[in-house]
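no rush on this but wanted to send it before i forget. theres a chain ive been looking at and ive put its sequence and its fold in token form underneath. i want to understand how the tokens follow from the sequence so walk me through it. thanks a lot i owe you, the record is right below:
>
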Amino acid sequence: MSTSQQPDPRDRPARLTVGVVGAGRVGPALAASLQLAGHRPVAASGVSDASRRRAADLLPDVPLVPPAEVLRRAELVLLTVPDDALPDLVAGLAETGAVRPGQLLVHTSGRYGAKVLDPALRAGALPLALHPAMTFTGTPVDVQRLAGCSFGVTAPDELRLAAEALVIEMGGEPEWIAEHNRPLYHAALALGANHLVTLVAQSLELLRTAGVEAPDRMLGPLLGAALDNALRSGDAALTGPVARGDAGTVAAHVRELREHAPAAADGYLAMARATADRALASGLLKPELAEDLLGVLADGGAHAAHGTPGTSGTHGTPGIDGAHGPDGPDGTDGTGGTGGTEGTEGDAR
């Protein structure tokens, strides 16, 4: 067996110098991944103490400088700032002459495609939108998680190969998203990932209130199986009282939530309505069982909240009239000056 050591990535000839504008949770991790592929991070910008610590952990010995200086030093620049800050940052950098012809300018916003980089394009930059579909912690574990991570990619046709190459070098899988579909694409990810965190956190709190000593241990296997089943089977993986049409159980749930966690009750009702619609459409929820269930959901659980019993032991006949239930980037570190001379940091997701 060979005992020869693998070459250190730092010993490879550097292909591109890399800069990071916005040392939030995303930028340093991507730059560290590019470094493993042989590129050389040379500069980063950071405003808050947290961003400076992240840069020090993931990009040691890389100097922190103003955004304009990052662009002056780097051939490939990662603009990893919150979505709402990106247009003004790009415009400011272009107006101040910081953008150089032939420079690869990459943003990681999920919301925007390549068009948001048009001011830089007019200055001669090469625009790429590379959005990692991943949640970031701001720690070295993020670099490992990029292996197999899908990236939402939008770029001019002539830069398609360059965009794919960068994603693959970071360990990711490119997924092409049309410019006009970027907001919908991003909404889908937020619905699935960001809202999942809220749902899980609420579930943990409710289990603690119910006396469960280790709610995380209880939820882990259940949620893992539910996620796996949903990814494999879609609506066919639906289970539980809504899919079964157990109106009395749903009414009891709403009653308990109104008493113990009123802030969670409206979210439960909204998700139960959406679940009922999908269960009906897929044939899981039988129409003859749906009427009472939809009644409970339509009146926002008003009868459940008052504990009105039904003759069948499920729930009282709810009045659909007068329904009152509502229908239904993190890690920001701060801002600096205007005109693109100081960038807003954070997770551009």
Notes: The chain has 14 helices and seven strands. Residues 6-14, 304-349 have pLDDT under 50 and may be disordered. The two ends are 45 Å apart (CA to CA).
